[in-house]
Amino acid sequence: MSFHDATVPAFLQILGSLSGILTKADAHCKARNIQPDVLLGARLYPDMLPFTRQIQLVSDFAAKSCARLTHSEVPSTPDTEKTFDELRQRLSKTIDYVKAFKPEQFDGADQRDVSFPVGPNTMTLKGQQFLNNFVFPNFYFHAATAHGILRHNGVEIGKRDFLGVN
In this structure, which CATH number among 3.40.50.620, 2.40.110.10, 1.20.120.450, 2.40.320.10 belongs to the domain 3-163? Predict the structure, then answer.
């Protein structure tokens, strides 16, 4: 399996599933006369990031990781989304961006040095270690947290929604 095949499809699956759960969250708010801001600002715990930020981070981990692994220019994505539609647009743009990467761009990426910010510092890892020990854990953490926030707040979604197999 190529490094591209181990990376891009995993991102696309979850980005697509999150778009689906955003649609369900929006419908949930409309059906129950809940202001969308209630879910968009919801957190699992007071010291955790809100739902909107979780989606933004999932998007960032997918796009910026592909850029770093292929030594492409890392995109700048301001975090300005305030609605379900704007979050779906962000995910759609991220999906298009990730889909645009060609398999050959990932050739050798597993052994390539990848530098990335960690707080105020910069860390450098080999591509395989970067993907397995940093990117995927963070990507799935924020995706699962977004799913958990919605489920905790009564949106009728389950594992199949998270996996995008509905």
Answer: 1.20.120.450
